[in-house]
User: Fold this.
Amino acid sequence: MKALIGLEDGTVMTARSFTGPGEAVGEIVFNTSMSGYQEVLTDPSYTGQLVTMTYPMIGNYGVNREDMESAGVHLRAFLVREYQDRPSNHRATGTLADFLKKYGVLGVEGLDTRMLTRKIRITGAMKALITTEDLDPESVVRRARAWEGLVGRDMVALVAGPAARYRWENNGPVPADGFAEGTGFKVVALDCGIKYNQLRLLTLKGCRVLVVPATTSAEEILALQPDGVFLSNGPGDPAGVRGVVDNIRKLLGKVPIFGICLGHQMLGLAYGATTYKLKFGHRGGNQPVKDLLTGRVEITSQNHGFCVDPASLPNNVEMTHINLNDGSLEGMRHREWPAFSVQYHPEYASGPHDAEYLFDRFMQMMEQAG
Assistant:
């Protein structure tokens, strides 16, 4: 089935839908990972985006229940060079096409993903429309340009988990109002679009994890008497998220805090820093980052389009990690309060395991605070 892809710069490309009829509008971006497409699809941070994979063959190992990073698919469309409809993997329980159809997400193939990626790198992430229904090139471009975009919008409100709290037990969510009985640090995880592997790792480290909605007040969090607070990843512009930054500001100095991705950006805003939009963002499992505290270089998994401006950091916050490709801020910590964060995804789902040590740092911070 023929599909048209219209970009806001006027470019129109043709493709084929492998999921049937459909239409999607959003911000078009690229991901450089060679594997892990199911983790990409189920990462809430991609809400509002159309994702093209730079690796040419996608779908060859199918999908399975264990690789889910949330309860569903969050991106609006998936673009690949060549879709493989016969998966070959002992873990596969279904095909990528059927998986996308289940969640009503458009998948297209047969486009020049190399050209598209180069265009995004040169021009920047753009508004785009993908459709099998409107095959008028001028209309497709015009409608892409009319989309409102991501800047200034509260995308967390679209993806944050259930209104009720839940614990992470037996590799899944269990509705609960409080922490499980037992030993281990009590960690409140603020759900701004959390990925399951973050919860898996916190639990693996021995933590008792209680996930709460992003809108939970600082007073409610402190009333739970946690040993630490974890700020999750999430989609969109951190400056557009309503209320969360004010609550983080009230938690600073009262409980150890560890932030990842959007959580890192909102922690920066709570410090008094500012954020800005990257030209085409960092998305993939091969981003080199230097830990300034140890001199160690790690290869990291990333997915973000916004960044904390290092020039805006107050004097009581120090930069701890930098991106070796463009020098952007990748990590920071407060000099006085027990709080630190990184821009990338140390939970490695999918991606390299180089940065898992950050969860151990969080454990050490909670132990010292106790």
